[in-house]
């Protein structure tokens, strides 16, 4: 489903966009570079150090094989940031971990994505100014961020700040933010009951679960 937010800018984009916006894609990760050519006719960031990327991918468009994924216009959570070394804005769309804020879901492991749509905008919540649409082509297949436990047991899940796992015994839990920073480490004894993580702030996280015969990574929002 195409989202034409600015027909005028979209028309301007057609001639020079390939030079302005370049990207590589592998295993569900799009690495973007914008503005190295010094041509801002697709989107003018107006000297902002950071701007936002609205992202979607729809099964109905044939863009992927496992459902619809869409950001809320009021909550775009992907950014492009000026990099002095590159002399351009750079950003990453990691579909293995990205929470789509409108459909409130993440893409499951093994999803085949033919393309994603993006719009550049100046704010996370809405926009004062924005680009037109751009398709970023694939295809790309998401890698496994979460793995099943040995013996095909049910994967762990986090809901409302609590870990639900079928693993038993002593576990070590390490919670990371999406930048790789360790937020919290816990040593717990799992007995089938939910485990309270006691996180102090809302956000998107990855958690590594380690223990006897278990090594699992869970992505979750809190």
Automatic annotation (TrEMBL):
NCBIfam families: Por_Secre_tail. This is Por secretion system C-terminal sorting domain-containing protein. It comes from the Bacteria. Residues 1-21 form the signal peptide. Keywords: Signal. It comes from Epilithonimonas hungarica. The keyword Signal applies. The keyword Signal applies.
